[in-house]
Design brief:
- By secondary structure, the chain is α+β, with helices and mostly antiparallel strands.
- About 30% of the residues lie in helices and about 20% in strands.
- The chain contains 11 helices and 14 strands.
- The chain has helices spanning about 20-35, 85-95, 155-160, 225-235, 245-250, 260, 270-285, 295-305, 315-325, 340-350, 355-370, and strands at about 1-10, 40-45, 50-55, 100-105, 110-120, 125-130, 145-150, 175, 180, 190-195, 195-200, 205-210, 290-295, 310.
- Strands 1-6-5-4-7-3-2 form a 7-stranded antiparallel beta sheet, with helices on one face. The chain has a 5-stranded mixed beta sheet with strand order 8-9-12-10-11, with no helix packed on it. It has a two-stranded parallel sheet with strand order 13-14.
- Helix 1 crosses helix 3, helix 5 packs across helix 7 (about 270-285) and helix 10 runs antiparallel to helix 11 (about 355-370).
Length: about 375
């Protein structure tokens, strides 16, 4: 039996849960299937024994993958794993939480059993893999790799299911080249990548399942970049011409905040149709003489015209309306200023009592000589 010590402290990633760890192992299996269609994955849970099994048809584990940073997926844009730490960290977390993990590496007749061992080198417990290379099987299954996780309670499994779209009936969706828009209310504000839950983003009106090649996630598979989320959902929705998209633009939803900019990066965009509908909706609600304004300066300028009526809308809504080919910039009449003659006459009428007859006569002559 061989022993492989990993330089991973028992307290590494202290915030990870069972759901986080299982997500990593599921993602590894899914990525292997993505790389090769013949390498089918499976995911099974036995509620009675509380045992979870994950595996692939033809995958095998090489001890080189125990090296931190080692990864077979680094340059594949269709997979999530990029750090080479996934299954090692997942194993550490599950072992720490008293969820024993066993890797049945059938393809090379090995069994890997990790546990924490006191290290003489580091002076504390570290994760160690014990690899039995002479493991006999009477009836080996028809797959090369199975990961067995014990002590998974029914509630924990339900939490795992809720975090994994591959294990759910997702319901109404809209397909996009960037992923899927999750239309049902239960997904509102939820962000998934390749079907796996990543984070909640409460500003979102809908839920989204993004393809991994379009979004970056950190080691903990968490997202914190608000701009990136708004930009990507705007790219996605620029290809969806629907009443809901129009309403989100009208209500300044973060989902579409950058739609009039991000559309250029979506080859399937339908922005022209969308903004035409936004324009029609605005005119239908406010009338033909309505002009969208988003600040006081614009409001004041339009208010000077007797022909048009300013209507306050958000900046993003105004941009969408004005992007439509149907929108014609109003020809606002310049403010008419009182003539110099009239201003002088008005002034003279107000101050005659304080002027001499001679001064009045001179001023009247000046007024007559003023050329407009």
């Amino acid at each position: 039996m061989s022993k492989y010590e990993l330089s991973l402290s028992k307290d590494y990633v202290p915030t990870w849960t069972v759901v986080d760890a299982v997500r990593e192992l599921f993602q590894n299996a899914l990525d292997q299937q993505t790389v090769s269609d013949d390498n089918k994955m499976f995911f099974e849970y036995d509620a009675e024994t509380q045992v979870l099994r994950i595996g692939n048809k033809s995958s095998v584990l090489n001890v080189k993958t125990l090296l931190l940073g080692s990864s077979t997926k680094r340059d594949d844009p269709n997979t999530i794993g990029q750090f080479g730490e996934g299954y090692k960290i997942a194993t550490l977390v599950l072992t720490r939480l008293n969820k024993p993990v066993t890797f049945y590496n059938y393809g090379v007749s090995e069994v890997w059993k990790p546990r924490f061992v006191n290290s003489r080198r580091y002076g504390e417990e570290i994760l160690t893999f014990f690899v039995d290379k002479k493991y006999p099987w009477e009836n080996a299954p028809d797959n090369n790799l199975t990961v067995v996780i014990e002590n998974i309670t029914n509630q924990e499994y339900q939490d795992i299911v809720e975090s994994n779209l591959h294990l759910q009936e997702v319901g109404e969706i809209i397909e996009s080249s960037f992923g899927r828009i999750l239309e049902e209310d239960r997904y509102k504000g939820k962000v998934f990548v390749n079907g796996l839950f990543v984070c909640n983003y409460s500003e979102y009106i809908q839920g989204y399942d993004f393809k991994p090649e379009y979004i970056k996630i950190d080691r903990d598979r968490k997202l914190a970049d608000s701009f990136e989320l708004k930009w990507l959902s705007s790219r996605m929705l620029s290809g969806v011409n629907s009443n809901k998209t129009v309403d989100m633009i009208k209500n300044s939803s973060p989902d579409v905040q950058y739609i009039t900019s991000a559309y250029a990066t979506n080859a399937d965009n339908r922005l022209r149709e969308i903004v035409d509908n936004v324009y029609d909706d605005f005119i239908s609600e406010h009338g033909e003489n309505a002009v969208p304004v988003s600040n006081q300066e614009e409001y004041t300028e339009v208010s000077k015209s007797a022909k048009y009526r300013p209507v306050y809308v958000s900046e993003s809504h105004a941009i969408a309306i004005k992007t439509s080919y149907k929108y014609v910039k109003p020809a606002l009449e310049p403010e008419k200023k009182e003539s110099i003659n009239k201003r002088l006459i008005t002034w003279l009428d107000s101050h005659k009592q304080s002027l001499s007859k001679k001064a009045i006569k001179q001023l009247e002559e000046i007024i007559d000589d003023v050329v407009e």
